[in-house]
Each structure stands twice: as structure tokens, then as C-alpha cells.
């Protein structure tokens, strides 16, 4: 039990197992009741009332107004997500408020979902099930009413080779895929060499018939040579720190892709221009797309991506890639986003690591606290 009764406001429920850790410590906890996000004014008001910790999700705009409201009182913002494009890092740093995220624990869940989305769109799982459910399944036929495309042995371009991109690569190597890597900021050549060794071993021992290759290439080469293009970059807008990824996939880059190729996005919606993608699907510049993230979430009812004309080649999901039970809710900070979220909050409030924010593993904006 800590000496001070910390006050926490959570903008959404993150599951009782993790929240009970805070309750058991005697923290005073208020959780916004709705499944939808609270209005920003509510967040600002709660912060202004002097809470010590704020639990947020990627739906909450945590900007200068929020940080200013908590300038001398708010000690930590704990985000339950790996991405934090909703949090203004410069404003957090200016107000010297640390924020945490839940990287690592969702890496495999997200990568496997990206892999499954790829399978769903390429092998037409949804069309097949829909046909059976609507009692439209006439008879078994070698190619009617439609066929899908294989994944095994094909070439995939992995755009962004951080944690989730690398987890995707590991899964793809098990499907005997050739892998083209592109990363706008960092090349992990050691990782690529290890995967190549694994590929060579599988080939040498007869576990896979064809020799496969992995290598870093330019974005143009990646897009123009791949059967599948999967996105794993953070959202960086023009003018922000880092290589911009906003609308990285646009008319020009979609036109580089092959007509028989598929686009998979489990990163952030605005990495893809939806207007350009709609055109690409409608005019068949590419074979299909599977999307878990959108420029505006939830996907608006009038989004062109809902056009029935492209329904057979456009799979849509509800930002669900990390949505697996243990990954989302486990209280264990090494397994669950909720567990890691509360641990990040506790580290800051209870001054773990000797109170040195720069040593706390889940704090993102360590740069603001370096002396
Ligand atoms: C989900 O998209 C996350 O950033 O955790």
C-alpha cells in the first residue's frame, strides 16, 4: 500500500484484473462509463481537478490543453496501446509529464492478425463463408464460382521492420515466403541475416523445397516486386520528428504495386490515403486490400470503402489486431496491455527505479527527463 492515495482517471475500462491492482493499492479510481471515448472536455476537467494519473486509449486526443491542465499535478499518462500518435509528445515534454505505452506485449497478436487478414483477403474466406451462409453454394467445381491466391512461396514486402514488422517476417518465413524489407529509418541487418540463415537451414534440410531470400530494398523495389505489401510503420505526420509516413501509400505508390498484389494495413489508418486506395480497388490497379485501421475510426457509414462493388476484394476490420484475450487484458505486464499499462502508471507514481523516469521501461518520452 502506498502512503499517498493517488487519484486516477481512466478514459475507458481496461478490465478488472489490472484495475484491481490499483484498487488493492488503495488508489482512488474513476473509470469513464461508456464504451465510447469521453468528450475531450471531460478529460480536461478531470485533469484540472488534480488527478495524479490518467489512463488513455488511442481514441483520446491528449494534447497541450490536457497537459497544461495538469501541469503541476498530473504525474503520468498511461496509454493502453503501443501507438501514441494521439499524444502530443512535444506538449508532454514541455510540461514535463511522462507518458507510457504498452509496446512488446501486443507484437505477436498484431503480427498474426496481419497474417490472418492477408489470408482472409487472398483466399477469399469471407466470400466463401457468405456464399455458404446465403445458401448460394451450388456444387464443387475446379474454379467456380471463384478462386483465391496462395500465400505460401510468394513474395511479401514488409514496410517497417520494427517489432511488429519483424514478428510478421518470422511468421512469413514459416510459409516459405521471399521477403523484401523496407524501413524509412532503421535497417536491422542482424535480424535479416538471422532470418536468411533460418531460410537456408530449412532449404538445406529439405523442410522447404525452394530457396528463399530476405533483403532490404528501396520502397519502390518493395512495392513493385511483391505479391503482398504489409504495413508496420508508426504514423508520422509531415513536420513531426522522424520520417513522415502519412499517406505513404497514395496514388503514386499504389501505382507501383502489381495488379495481382494485395495491401495489408494493421498499422495506422492515415498511412494509407483511403481515397487513393478506393480508386485502386475500383479500377483494379491492385488485387485487394485488408484493413484493420482507417483514416477516421470508426469507419464512417458513407466511406467509399463500403462500396459493394469492391466488397469481394476489400476486407474491413474494427482495429482489432491486438484484440486477443491475454494480449488485451492480462494483468501480467509481460503478457497483457492492461497489465503493462497499470505497471507503467505505478512505476511513475511510486517512484520505482529510484524515481528515475529515464530508467522506467514503459515510459516513452524519456528525453524530457534526461539531465
Ligand atoms: C493499437 O493499434 C495499438 O497501438 O496498440
Describe this structure in words.
The protein has about 375 residues and is of the alpha/beta class. It folds into 2 domains: about 5-105 and about 325-370, Rossmann fold, CATH 3.40.50.720; about 105-315, Rossmann fold, CATH 3.40.50. Helix content is about 35%, strand content about 10%. The protein contains 13 helices and 12 strands. It has a 7-stranded parallel sheet, sandwiched between helices. Strands 2-1-3-4-5 form a 5-stranded parallel sheet, sandwiched between helices. The chain is globular, with a radius of gyration of 22 Å. The mean pLDDT is about 95. Glyoxylic acid binds near residues 58, 81, 83, 106 and 322.
What is shown here, in short?
This protein has 371 residues and is of the alpha/beta class. The protein is 33% helix and 12% strand.
CATH topology of the largest domain: Rossmann fold
Largest sheet: 7 strands, parallel
Please state the structural category.
alpha/beta
Bound molecules: glyoxylic acid
Distance between the termini: 31 Å
Instruction: Output the helix-strand order.
Output: EHEHEHEHEHHEHEHEHEHEHEEHH
Rounded average pLDDT = 97
Q: Could you give the order of strands across the largest sheet?
A: 8-7-6-9-10-11-12
User: How many helical stretches?
Assistant: 13
Question: Which descriptor suits the 3D outline?
Answer: globular
The count of strands amounts to 12
Architecture of the largest domain, CATH level 2? 3-Layer(aba) Sandwich
Summarize the amount of helix as a percent range.
25-40%
The CATH C-level class name of the largest domain: Alpha Beta
Number of domains: 2
Hey, roughly how much beta strand do the residues contain?
5-15%
CATH evolutionary superfamily of the largest domain: NAD(P)-binding Rossmann-like Domain
Radius of gyration: 22 Å
Poorly predicted residue ranges:
none
